[in-house]
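Quick start: read one record
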Amino acid sequence: VATGGGAWTLARNRSLVAAHGCLSVWLDAPFDLCLRRIDAEGARDSRPFARDAERAQGLYAERLAAYSQADLRVPVAPDARADELAAEIAAALAAVE
């Protein structure tokens, strides 16, 4: 299940994930990459927190502490492909089993 960025910031949501034995994964993309992707999609208007880059960067910084509580951190490079990230997550899952 993929959540929006704010869902993981709530302790009760993190507790639910842990209580059900799920592995949480943080796709750790730098802020600049996130903003470039939002701009490439033309999605600033549909993302209320991304309309103002400075405000968005502040929110991103605030959320980092919660994101870092994920079970697995996967750094995301600008040229990373979805299949590469999926393979890294699958390898981590295999190591846990």
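The mean pLDDT is 89.
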